[in-house]
Structures are given as C-alpha cells and as structure tokens.
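Input.
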Amino acid sequence: MTIRVLLADDQALLRATFRILIDSCADMEVVAEASDGAEAVELTRAHHPDIVLMDIRMPGTDGLTATAALCADPDLSATRVLILTTFETEDYVAQALRAGASGFLGKDVTADTLLAGLRTVASGEALLSPAATRSLITRFLLAPAPDTHLAPPERLADLTVREREVMALAAEGRSNTEIAEDLVLSPLTVRTHIHRAMTKLNARDRAQLVVIAYQTGLVRAVPPTV
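Output.
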C-alpha cells in the first residue's frame, strides 16, 4: 500500500524538500501541499491522506488549531497527524497530543528518521519515544493527584486489570519490551493489551492512550527531581 501524505508548512522550500524525499520512496507519495492550517484542513477533507505532516507555527490558522479540527472530524478518522516542531517548544507538542496528534518530529530530523516516522504513524503506532513521553508527562500532563483509594474513573471501567496495568506503564514512558519484562509477558501480549485498551477507550494511538491515563488519574505524574 502507498502511504499518502499531505504536507502543511508555510516554508515552500521545506515542503519541496520533503516532497522530493517522500516521492522518492516506492511506498509513499505526497498528495497535496498546504501553506497554512486552514488550507491543510480544506485539502485533507478533499484528499483524505493517510498522514498530515503538520507544522505548528504557520500564519493565519496555526497547526494546533488545524490538528484539533482534523482529529475531531469523524470523516477523517483514518487520517493521522504527525507534528513537525522542535523540542524547545514542548508545550506546543503537549497541546497537539491532547488535540489528537499521533506524534511529533523535530525539523532537524534526518531523512531516514522522517521516513521511518511516517511509516510508524501510518502503521497505527504513535511516534512518541519513551524518553519524550517522560519529558512531556512530567512537564505538561500533570493532573491533580487522584485519591489512590478510589475506584478508577468510569471511563476506564471496561478495561481489565491487566489492561490498566499495561496502560499505566506505557503512560510512564515504558517501551513494550520494558513492560513485558516488568509483568513477565511477551512483547506481543503487551502490544495486544495496548491495542485492546485503545479500542475500548476509542484512542487513535498510543499517544492518546498516554494522555487519557493522566487525564483520568490512572497515573499520577511526578515532577522531575532537580
């Protein structure tokens, strides 16, 4: 299958560079280019790409607003948004994840990393490394401390005990391999539990699962030690 990509960035030179790179791959193609968020939303609704490679800072409608609009549109449930940003603006990244983005890349990524990231997101996974997850949750996804003696919120009621355990560890930034070692499971079993939790919670991907874990109080973020 060919991965269909829409590029949204106000820098024409950068869009042209990405187009050349993506179109050089046999399994990818650029279907449209947008220079701002409003155009990105319009073209996404017209072309239904698999992935929108979205810049955050654009004139007019920015990437965050566009991401929220795309991810809230039920007709675009199959389209995923991959954010382009820098790690110096992690607050924007956190907002994008809350809006439904499937991950993020820095604009200084190598060609191989960009292509691998597009394939990762197209496969249904989130492009959110354990290190990035830990950084984001400790700085921007902090929630009021829940009473640990209370039952899980109603939204998590359909999850099994094991699914909640796996979800909590994923929200702490653990990889599937690390979770498997902690719970004495196979990585494939961990992956299955994560996908079941995503399905039950109507989460697009692992990134949204992490956000839900903190928003519902399943996991409490601990500020980093100075």
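The chain is about 50% helix and 10% strand.
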